């Protein structure tokens, strides 16, 4: 099985186990394989330090005291020779000091070797004073300083017994730490991976469409934050799913109603003599237009969300466009008692896609008509603010709770959850408004007070008059 196919739990277990194995291997190297080398090096470094301490005090009144201090501290024997007068100082606290076994010729050879080697020389001897090829039994360090020759000897105790003892100890320690390490690796890997595994199982449920799943895996900050994010995403998906179900119900109702009307009046005209009247034909036309508007809403939101709609930007008279839109509501104002007014101080030219801006205003007015109060009053205001013009559509309905305001622009969202026949649109109108205005890069928003009504607004840049027409 490849490493990438393993679960996080087993990957952590293997990594921790491998780390433990490397640590035990390094301990074995330093305590068994390299022990003799480290021991020999430490003894040689000790000789160098002791020799330097003696050399510093050569020819002074403290020389004897310095030599004795070195011998006591490092358990070595010392021979100092004054080349001028031949004085020899021997201080020996070590049994079987090799310096006593060396002949005058051997001592002279050490001196010559040090002289040829920049004043220092290190040699290995046996207990009997014979030169050894790389032997580690007894070491003599020779250093020349002026008229003095300093020789120090120390014994290298064999470490085979120590190595054997350490090896036995390390075998047991390796087994103990190996078992403890495996238990620790299993505990840590399970501790770290368990919250992730719990989150993963919940995520699989979410992927299957269970939006009611709850992510409650805990353990450390990152997984807690991830679960909070996933819980939020699941909640949003649950809202969308609920709104989509409502959309299906609303669209089914809104599409079936005009189809029923068209079918019914067509059958009347076909079956009953004298019913082929302009009024009946107009009802069929009106219902067909209503059906087309519903279908267009669904198509428009799909195109806008897919980003396949392009803008045909031009300068146009925004004031005249709104007045033309107002004419569509003549029937509502004359027959149904609606009061739809437009307030504007002057003519304003703006730049944008006139057809889509018309769609924005039309959807905002339709939304206001649907939610306005018993007085059936809707006001459209055009307000100039420096270089921008604000269009605001106000109704006198029940208003929107503050916590609901962020959702009014969502697809499928409707403030009233009980679908009404008089409802204008499918719940897609404000989402279409949002996408068109976002595509234009225009600011927009909503202000609402409960039991007083709501105001939906957006702003456009004002086009200035120039010799060739208008420009931004």
Biggest sheet features: 5 strands, antiparallel
Q: What is the overall number of helices?
A: 11
Q: Give the helix/strand class.
A: alpha+beta
CATH level-1 class of the largest domain? Alpha Beta
- Fold-level CATH name of the largest domain: Heat Shock Protein 90
Please indicate the count of domains: 4
Question: What CATH architecture of the largest domain would you give?
Answer: 2-Layer Sandwich
CATH homologous superfamily assignment of the largest domain: Histidine kinase-like ATPase, C-terminal domain
Strand numbers in spatial order across the main sheet: 2-1-5-4-3
- How would you sum up the global shape? elongated
Order of helices and strands: HHHEEHEEEHHHEHHEEHEEHEEEE
How far do the termini sit from each other? Answer: 66 Å
Please provide the count of β strands.
14
Give the overall pLDDT as a whole number: 81
* Share of residues in strands: 15-25%
Q: Give the helix proportion (percent range).
A: 40-55%
- Write down the Rg: 49 Å
Point out poorly predicted stretches.
131-136, 417-424
EC number: 2.7.13.3
Keywords: ATP-binding, Cell membrane, Kinase, Membrane, Nucleotide-binding, Phosphoprotein, Transferase, Transmembrane, Transmembrane helix, Two-component regulatory system
Pfam family, one: HisKA
Transmembrane segments: 12-39, 170-188
């Amino acid at each position: 099985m490849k490493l990438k196919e393993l679960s996080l739990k087993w990957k952590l277990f293997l990594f921790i186990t491998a780390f433990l194995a490397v640590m035990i291997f390094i301990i074995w190297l330093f305590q068994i394989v390299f022990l003799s080398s480290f021991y020999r090096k430490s003894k040689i470094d000790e000789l160098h330090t002791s020799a330097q301490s003696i050399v510093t005090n050569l020819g002074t009144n403290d020389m004897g005291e310095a030599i004795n201090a070195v011998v006591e501290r490092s358990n070595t024997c010392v021979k100092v020779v004054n080349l001028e007068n031949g004085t020899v100082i021997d201080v020996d606290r070590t049994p079987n000091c090799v310096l006593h076994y060396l002949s005058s010729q051997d001592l002279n050879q050490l001196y010559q070797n040090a002289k040829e080697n920049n004043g220092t020389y290190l040699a290995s001897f046996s207990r009997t004073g014979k030169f050894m090829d790389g032997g580690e039994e007894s070491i003599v360090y020779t250093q020349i300083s002026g008229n003095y020759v300093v020789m120090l000897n120390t014994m290298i105790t064999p470490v085979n017994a120590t190595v054997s003892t350490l090896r036995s100890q390390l075998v047991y320690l390796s087994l103990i730490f190996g078992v403890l390490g495996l238990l620790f690796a299993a505990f840590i890997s399970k501790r770290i991976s368990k919250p992730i595994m719990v989150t993963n199982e919940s995520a699989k449920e979410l992927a299957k469409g269970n939006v009611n799943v709850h992510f409650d895996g805990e353990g450390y900050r990152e997984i807690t934050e991830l679960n909070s994010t996933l819980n939020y995403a699941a909640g949003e998906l649950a809202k969308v799913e609920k709104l989509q179900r409502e959309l299906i119900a609303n669209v089914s109702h809104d599409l079936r109603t005009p189809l029923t009307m068209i079918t019914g009046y067509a059958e009347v005209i076909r079956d009953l003599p004298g019913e082929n009247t302009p009024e009946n034909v107009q009802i069929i036309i009106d219902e067909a237009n209503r059906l087309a508007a519903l279908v267009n809403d669904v198509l428009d939101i799909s195109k806008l969300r897919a980003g396949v709609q392009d803008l045909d930007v031009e300068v146009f008279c925004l004031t005249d466009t709104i007045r033309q839109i107002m004419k569509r509501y003549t029937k509502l104002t004359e027959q149904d008692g609606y009061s739809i007014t437009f307030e504007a101080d002057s003519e304003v030219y703006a730049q944008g896609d006139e057809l889509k801006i018309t769609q924005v205003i039309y959807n905002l007015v339709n939304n206001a008509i649907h939610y306005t109060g018993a007085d059936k009053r809707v006001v459209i205001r055009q307000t100039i603010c420096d270089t921008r013009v604000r269009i605001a559509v106000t109704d006198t309905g029940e208003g929107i709770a503050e916590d609901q305001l962020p959702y009014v622009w969502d697809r499928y969202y409707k403030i009233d959850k009980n679908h009404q026949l008089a409802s204008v649109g499918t719940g897609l109108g404000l989402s279409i408004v949002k996408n068109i205005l976002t595509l234009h890069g225009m600011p927009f928003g909503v202000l609402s007070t409960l039991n007083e009504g709501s105001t939906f607004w957006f702003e456009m840049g004002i086009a200035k008059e120039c010799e060739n027409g208008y420009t931004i």
